[in-house]
Amino acid sequence: MGCLSGIVNFILYIVNIVFLIVGILLIVLGSIMLSDLSHFDGAGSGTNTDTIPICVTVLGGLIFVVSFFGCYGIFRQSACMTGAYTSMVFILFILQLVLTCWVFVNRSAFLNDMTNLVNLLWNSKDYNAMGVLENTFGCCGDTGYTNYGSMGLSVPGTCCGYLDRQTTCSAQSGYQSRPGCSEKFEEFWNDNMDIIRWSGLGLCIFDLIVFLIAGALTNCMRTQNGGRQVYA
Question: What pLDDT was estimated at residue 4?
Fold first, then answer.
């Protein structure tokens, strides 16, 4: 291949190496999260706390597979493998484009889904997850600290800054002024919605560029090999 093709080939190879490492890290992170969550007693919680770790692990696996095809195909100069990689990147581009457009068009629906997620956690009595939200966002209960009183429960320590929910909150801790977690969770996503949407659009553009470059390299490899396919 020519000098320019060789440079592009090298850049794309390095990009795929980076994403290969990212995929491995996501798989490890998801596995660690699954391992940590297995220590909690989810009996009667009514929710599956493994959903997010599983999604992280699957995403990492998907990134790893796509990047592996790219790395191996470029390293071996295999038009077959690089062509498969190009197809995978195109599919990722379409999926990300659809998701990004949905977020752009359905902002209110997305925010409503985030609020409903907290409501679901509260209604299913998943207090471990509620404790994480309370510590992270400085909130208390679903709509406020009175939710615990209406359930016949004392206000947990996570409503006043303690990591241990069994710790008793004093009246001076200020938990009465903390907003509900459904409100704070929606506010968080609302404040970061523009970042999410434009980041998604940026990823779509990046995927499109990678798709075009990978497609050009695949044609270059086929021309160089005189129509012969290098499989391994």
Answer: 65
